[in-house]
Specification:
about 300 residues, mainly beta, SH3 type barrels, endopeptidase fold (from Nostoc punctiforme), 3 domains, six-stranded antiparallel sheet, 23 strands
């Protein structure tokens, strides 16, 4: 008798179920991953979408990768991911990945080639840029340069840290668990770096990026954009309260850090660099277009 193999019956694939109460709400597209055809499954109870997806964690393996508003080489950069930072991918094609950044939830597109499998990191670059040596020798060829705040997995090997791609000198990095304590000092290390819209330290940085990375290296999470920072960092200062070191001053579409009661440290498009200058000069310059240039002042408790 011939025996015919029959396929084993399996359970149907798991379906994403949700219960949307009331009307779908409008969410900030910068920090909520939802577009016309797809949304993060965590938003299923808040808005309706034709499809939902669960994010897959990936690691940025480029020294720095711009996060773009739309998929295209000429698209505007809205932020930047540094080497070793996490990206939650919801949609991946041959050339692009759409999702959100792990450190702040900011949504956008990254080049697919900038991402790889999730990597547990052990060290953070502390130098302005760390040479990646091909062998454990300061005279060896340099394969790449990684920016300050880049993350990587490595093992201490004498004066070097050994990793898969090469060697970074131990004086250029520290363990990820070692936090800074003075965000003003951290921000001052970016003095002279070019102003780049959307930058967070790979060859350039913008005003809110400077605030975010400086606070982040001190273990303080901060949103990406100035308006989000104005509502989400620290506490507002009374109008008659004198400014002091570490206070944040907000202008229309701009933010800076006070280094003392008179001097503002900021990445700005006027000088196209990170600079420290008198706050009074900044106010005078902006009064041409704004009657009240300072729109908020906030203080962060250490």
């Amino acid at each position: 008798m011939n025996v015919i193999d029959t396929p084993t019956r399996t359970s149907p694939p798991e379906r994403i179920r949700f219960n949307l109460q009331g009307r779908s709400v409008a969410l900030d597209s910068r920090t909520h991953a939802a577009r016309g055809d797809l949304a993060d499954v965590s938003l299923a109870g808040m808005l309706f979408s034709a499809h939902y997806a669960r994010a897959v964690k990936l690691t940025c393996v480029a020294a720095g990768a711009p996060l773009l508003a739309t998929p295209g080489t000429n698209a505007q950069a809205v932020s930047e991911l540094l080497r070793g930072e996490i990206f939650h991918a919801l949609d991946v094609t041959t050339d692009w990945a759409w999702g959100f950044c792990g450190h702040d939830g900011y949504v956008g597109y990254l080049r697919r080639e900038a991402l790889d499998a999730l990597e547990e990191t052990t060290h953070r670059v502390t130098a302005s840029c760390a040479p990646l040596f091909s062998v454990a020798d300061i005279k060896a060829p340099v394969a790449d340069y990684w920016p300050r705040n880049a993350l990587f997995a490595g093992v201490e090997d004498g004066p070097f840290i050994a990793l898969g791609e090469g060697f970074i000198h131990s004086r250029h990095a520290r363990m990820v668990g070692e936090k800074e304590t003075d965000w003003v000092s951290v921000a001052e290390r970016y003095l002279g770096q070019p102003y780049v819209w959307g930058g967070r330290g790979h060859r350039g940085i913008d005003c809110s990026g400077l605030v975010q990375v400086a606070l982040g290296q001190c273990g303080i999470s901060a949103p990406r954009d100035t308006d989000l920072q104005r509502e989400g960092i620290g506490s507002p200062l009374a109008e008659d309260a004198p400014l002091r070191r570490g206070d944040l001053v907000f202008f229309p579409g701009h933010v800076g850090i006070m280094t003392d009661n008179e001097t503002l440290l900021h990445a700005n498009a006027h000088w196209m660099t990170v600079i420290a200058e008198p706050l009074a000069d900044v106010v005078a310059r902006l009064q041409v277009d704004h009657a009240e240039p300072i729109i908020a002042r906030r203080r962060i408790s250490a």
